[in-house]
Amino acid sequence: MVQATPLLLVLFLALGAHGASVKKCNLIGRWVNDLGSNMTITTLNAKGVFTGSYHTAVTATTNEIRLSPLQGSVQRPNQKGQPTFGFTVNWSFSDSITVFTGQCFVDDDGKEILKTMWLLRSRVEDIKNDWKATRVGINVFTRLEQQE
Q1: What pTM was estimated for this model as a whole?
Q2: Number of domains present in the structure of the chain
């Protein structure tokens, strides 16, 4: 029994150290998605409200793409390491708006990943064209590394 004590102590410390080193996702920063769109989240307050900007790489319009504002909220900020969130992008160059919902994950290598699903609503001329006004999709965002 005496010989097992050091082994149990080492095992306990190893497991405890692993649990203490779980990295939390931080939404603030610059992100890029699987289509090459860039998102920057600049502020996140204590209530979980955040703001930023979105520059899409894709569009269904012929208008010139412009930087667009985003605003959202994160569920219970600083409570969980991999929070859920939602945000809205009000497109500056088209008559449409997109809402995103997702979760921030930290993978086994410590890399932060945002898994999202979105609904894009475009303006249509009349109710007969409502059937084509909403699109749905998914995006995966990864953090853009800082340039030094």
Answers
A1: 0.79
A2: 1
